[in-house]
Amino acid sequence: MKHVAVIGAGPAGLMAAEVMARGGAAVTVYDRMPSAGRKLLMAGRGGLNLTHSEELARFMTRYGAMSDALRDAIAAFPPAALRQWCEELGESTFVGSSGRVFPRAMKASPLLRAWLRRLDASGVRFALRHRWTGWSGAKLAFATPGGGTEVAADATVLALGGASWPRLGSDGGWVEILAKAGVAIAALQPANCGFRAEWSEHLKRYAGAPLKRVALSFGVERVRGEAVVTEAGLEGGAIYALAPVLLDAIAREGEATLRVALRPDMSTEQIARRVAAPRGKQSLSNFLRKALSLSAAEIGLLQEITHGRLAALSARELAQLINALPLRLTGTAPIARAISTAGGIAFSAIDAHFMLRARPGVFVAGEMLDWEAPTGGYLLQACLATGAAAGRGVVGRMGRRAD
Ligand SMILES: Cc1cc2nc3c(=O)[nH]c(=O)nc-3n(C[C@H](O)[C@H](O)[C@H](O)COP(=O)(O)OP(=O)(O)OC[C@H]3O[C@@H](n4cnc5c(N)ncnc54)[C@H](O)[C@@H]3O)c2cc1C
Questions:
Q1: 16-40: per-residue pLDDT in tens?
Q2: Which atom of ligand 1 approaches the CA of 367 most closely?
Q3: How far does the centroid of ligand 1 lie from the alpha carbon of residue 245, in Å?
Q4: Residue whose CB lies within 8 A of the most ligand 1 atoms, among 63, 82, 170, for a mutation test
Q5: I need a surface site. Which of 85, 113, 120, 362 has the fewest CB within 10 A?
Q6: What is the DSSP letter of 310?
Q7: pLDDT at 400 (0 to 100)
Q8: Alpha helices (H) in 4-102, listed in sequence order
Q9: Which residues on adjacent β-strands are paired with residue 224?
Q10: How many CB atoms lie within 10 A of CB 270?
Q11: Which atom of ligand 1 is nearest to the CA of 142?
């Protein structure tokens, strides 16, 4: 039996392990953390969006310039196969109103538990608290709480993730190791990330407050959804959806002015009529809260943009502001807070089986590859599909070498 090392117990690594164990390999999964799948568990906190139900041709366009590079892997493990795989693990899935696919339980823990049980039953071993530090000759070198250790493997799958949320395990530390080994790597950057705004001290008190059912516009792009005020700016689903155009604009101009419609279902006239009603002895904040159900954070934003002179605006000016609030964004939030990472191992550095050209026998998968996609289930779909592809690559290579 060939011994294969998977380094990284996230969705990509675990999927590679599953495929290789099924293909007859003795698999050990190494991870620097004390338990597997920490980012997957975090992804399940707000509802685990596994994949998307749209037809495959449209689905593939979500990977932009990298859709060709991912096409074969996703065709071999498409969204329907991912849903079937969940079913087999006892987790049925459903399609939400936006077309996104979720497990019935919404969270990741039942799925991960069932998956780890199945991997265990198929003979996959786990070596946790093992931080991969590179190669020592042909062997894999790890740092463990008990000291350094070296492991020989017939093949290796690296599935070390990107660099967001480093406290969950993936910290991008692999970049230096692989760059030294001659692997082409595009710089890791935040994707699906929050943005910085120069908030006043007053606004910072609303950190964590959601802006619900708003519409965000930038240029011709308009997105409905939710954003969240942070201490240093904005984050949340609607912001992530606009991230690519905002990133471009900030790279070009140094800043980007986002327009926020706080009440996108109402016309300016409707809003103006409501704010023109007599407010009696009520404070302006109380009045706006009642007349338009604006939250304290939304009123705080209006005050911020008018430098506290909201009361001086006419009903019409106020109505216009409520549905086109200009928020100046001056940079991205740190990669540590991003949902995912852009950049990574260039597709030119791997062959059709996800094997590194510079390091035969070493395969790569998941977010550490240079692709990016919006939220909507596209991230996990590509991680699982490339994990399966790398696993098949290893099985194929072992078969060829055994011949
Ligand atoms: C808050 C949040 C919500 C998200 N929600 C969704 C969602 O709903 N839908 C979706 O599609 N995607 C979502 N994602 C993204 C998704 O979780 C990731 O794209 C996915 O987990 C990446 O999988 P991966 O296996 O490539 O890497 P990871 O899951 O990051 O796993 C990599 C593993 O490698 C280990 N590792 C790293 N370096 C070393 C080393 N040197 N030695 C040993 N081990 C190492 C890490 O400990 C980690 O366990 C979310 C992400 C976040 C942060």
A1: 999 999 999 999 999 999 999 999 9
A2: 26
A3: 24
A4: 170
A5: 120
A6: G
A7: 72
A8: 11-22, 38-43, 56-61, 67-76, 79-88
A9: 215
A10: 14
A11: 42
Single pTM value for the model: 0.92
**Residue 334 carries which DSSP code?**
P
From atom 50 of ligand 1, which residue's Cα is the shortest distance away?
43
CA-wise closest residue to 173 among 158, 162, 159: 162
Question: What is the dihedral angle through the alpha carbons of 196, 366, 50, 23, rounded to the nearest 10 degrees?
Answer: -170
pLDDT above 90: percentage of residues in the chain? 97
Are 399 and 28 in contact by the 8 Å Cβ rule? The answer is no
For the record, the structure tokens of 397 come out as 């290579």
- Position in ligand 1 atom list of the atom nearest CA 132: 42
What angle is formed at CA 189 by the lines to CA 188 and CA 192, rounded to 5 degrees?
130
Residue nearest to atom 14 of ligand 1 (CA): 43
Rounded Cα gap, residues 375 and 69, in angstroms: 19
Taking the C-alpha atoms of residue 207 and residue 101, their distance in angstroms, rounded to an integer, is 30
pLDDT in tens, 321-374: 999 999 999 999 999 999 999 999 999 999 999 999 999 999 999 999 999 999
Q: Categorize the per-residue pLDDT at 99 as very low, low, confident or very high, splitting at 50, 70 and 90.
A: very high
Q: In which element (H, E) is residue 25 found?
A: none
Residues with CB under 6 Å of ligand 1 are 7-13, 30-33, 38-40, 42-43, 48-49, 131-132, 159-161, 164-165, 169-170, 173-174, 339-340, 366-367, 377, 379-380, 383
Q: Would you call 160 exposed, middle or buried from its count of C-beta atoms within 10 A (0-12, 13-18, 19+)?
A: buried
Q: What is the pLDDT of residues 226-275, one digit of tens each?
A: 999 999 999 999 999 999 899 999 999 999 999 999 999 999 999 999 99
Q: Report the C-alpha dihedral over residues 103, 109, 110, 114, rounded to 10 degrees.
A: 120
Q: How far is the CA of 109 from the centre of ligand 1 (A)?
A: 14
Count CB atoms within 10 A of the CB of residue 117. Answer: 12
Output the CA 129–ligand 1 centroid distance in Å. 16
Could you identify the atom of ligand 1 that is nearest to the CA of residue 36? 49
Q: Answer whether residue 167 shows pLDDT above 90.
A: yes
Query: Residue of the nearest CA to atom 6 in ligand 1?
Result: 43
